[in-house]
Every structure is written in C-alpha cells, then in structure tokens.
Amino acid sequence: MAKKNVPLTQLVKTSGCAAKLGPGVLHSVLQQLPKFEDPNLVVGFDTSDDACVYKINDSLVTIQTVDFFPPMVDDPYFFGQIAAANALSDVYAMGGNPALAMNLMCFPSCLEINVMQSILEGGYSKVKEAGAVVAGGHTITDPTPKYGLCVTGFAHPSEILTNSSAHTGDVLVLTKPIGLGVMNTAAKVHMLDEGQLKNIIGIMSTLNKYAKEAMSGLDVHSCTDVTGFSLTGHSYEMASGSEKTIEIYTDQVPVINGALDLAAMGIIPEGMYNNLDYLADKYIYKNTLPQNLKDLLLDPQTSGGLLVSLPEKDAKEFLKRMEEHTPYAKIIGQVTEKKEKPLLIY
C-alpha cells in the first residue's frame, strides 16, 4: 500500500517551541550538573543565555547553538523554514553571524521521503538567506517528525551580547509580536483562516538577521530572543541576570491579530502552564489585566523576536531602521534599579 502525505501537525502532541521541556524541570536538572572550567569559555549554560561562546583568539569567538522541534504547520517547506529561522536566531541574539549549520532530522516511516526533502529545502532556504552553509547533519527514525539545526557563528569578542547586561535607564524593544503559541495551537485544530495562517508563517519564518543588523553602531547593552520561555520568562532572565528590575507596559506590547480572542476561548498551549508554574513568584501585576492578556505574556513563542535593552536615544534609531523590515517593533518597557521583584508588569 502506498504511503500518504498526512498533515504534519496531526503527528504531534505539541508543536514548535511549546514542545520544549518546562523551565522548572530543566533548571532543576542543570543545577545538579558539574560546571566545566575553561578560560576560553566566555558564555556557558549557567547564565541561561541563548548560545555558548568560546574564544578562539583575541579577535574571534565562536558561537554554538542547537535547536529543533516538532512541526507547527502542515506544509513541510514552511516547517523547515521556521525551524531553521528559530535555530539561527540564537546566534543573532548573541551578536554574531551564522556561518555553518548541520541538520537534525527525526522522521517517521509513515511519510513519503519527498516530505523530508521539502523540510530540508525550507531549512536550506533560510540558511542561505542568513549567508551560512549547510554541511551535513544527522537523521533518525522517529514516530514524531522533528527538525532543526546545529549552528556555528562567529563574532569579535567586543560584539558579543548577553541576556544579563541590561543597564538602569535602558528601554526594551521587542521586534516581533507575541501570541504565536496560541495561534499555532489554533492552527492545529483548523481554527485559523488562510490569511491568519499566512501571517503567522511570515512572522515565524522571518530571520532575526535584520534586527541584528539594525543594531549596528548602536549602544546595545543586552539582548535575547523570545521563544518557548515566553516574553515574561525571557524578560525575567534578563532582569535577574542583570540584577535589575524590568517594567513591562502591556499596552505597548505588540500582539498578533486574533490571539487575544483565541486565548479568551481557552486555546492555550501546554507550554504556557509550564511557564506559569516556574515564573509565578517572579513578577507582580501592577494593574488589573484580563486573563487572556496574562496568558499571552506567558505564551511560548516559536521563532519569536529579539528583546533588546539599550538607551532610549539608540532605541529610537533602532526602531527607525526596523521600519523597513517589520511593522511590529516597539518599545515595551524599561530597566530600573532592583525593586521588590525582577518583573513589574503594568
């Protein structure tokens, strides 16, 4: 009997970055592991940064990251593009440029091989757009399809950005809207129209390359990408690592059209509850907010935007440059001296 190409999302329980292990479980395991000591390891996993950074010489560091997940869309080409854009994002968040990528593929025997080819072609298109190359990879048979990349990038040591160096007085810019986890959950049960689906695919497949390039010459202090840990989670990591408090102004946070309505209907990915369990005591709501907005602030994003901490004058120039690439980039908060909680949400 001939195999059939079935919708990819029907083969998965959770999709995209919502499939990531909950932060509470992950942190409890990592805390028990020994830390490697190497004078050339500039950034390791102990700081919750987006990638590791290793010094090659006084003028060059390498940035290493790996990321893969199950599909959040049925089209294999678009799935490949989104997974690749998400993996490449970690290098951009650290201030580097991707150079080399290797495929990670888990593929079920129930699918035609042309589905694998389409996934890889989608990934290749984004690696090429990034100016990097694919040079191999690894595949295994798995009932649940998964795809991603191991990426190597390079930078000058002075160009490295971390999520733990925000300065008091900085403002925060977010370059993509939130709500992707909710929208992907709705897409899985066919609750999005063609226009909504096209919109979220466009957002998720957009490289953060352009946001990274728009930072050139500006006094950027800290940066991270917003993915499965949510806007609240990644803001918390930046605040905690910087020993500051971050204030988020929810009326300024860009939200994907339709996401609030879907969240109000209870269309919530499992990853949101994992984020809530871990973060519940790490922030304070300073205003009364509707439950659907609270849910979106904890929503696990797939291939989300960059969260950038920089002085207001530089932020204005950054936003001006970003107008060419996206209508979503906005100032969403500010950095203050440490207060009663790492996050204050207004």
Topology overview:
Layout: H1 23-30, E1 41-43, E2 52-57, E3 60-69, H2 76-93, E4 97-107, H3 113-129, E5 133-141, E6 146-155, E7 171-174, H4 180-188, H5 194-205, H6 209-214, E8 222-225, H7 230-242, E9 245-248, H8 259-264, H9 270-279, E10 283-285, H10 291-297, E11 306-310, H11 312-322, E12 330-336, E13 343-345
Parallel strand pairs: 4-5, 9-13, 10-13
Antiparallel strand pairs: 1-2, 2-3, 3-6, 4-6, 7-11, 7-12, 8-11, 9-12
Helix pairs in contact: 2-3
Walk me through the structure:
This protein is an alpha+beta fold and 346 residues long. Helices cover 34% and strands 23% of the residues. The chain contains 11 helices and 13 strands. Strand 4, helix 3 (113-129) and strand 5 form a beta-alpha-beta unit. Helix 2 (76-93) packs parallel to helix 3. The longest helix is centred in the N-terminal third of the chain and has 18 residues, at 76-93. The N and C termini lie far apart (58 Å).
Distance between the termini: 58 Å
Adjacency order of strands in the biggest sheet: 8-11-7-12-9-13-10
How would the global form be characterised? globular
The helix-and-strand class reads alpha+beta
Task: Report the biggest beta sheet as strand number plus sense, adding barrel if it closes.
Answer: 7 strands, mixed
Q: Please give the share of residues in helix.
A: 25-40%
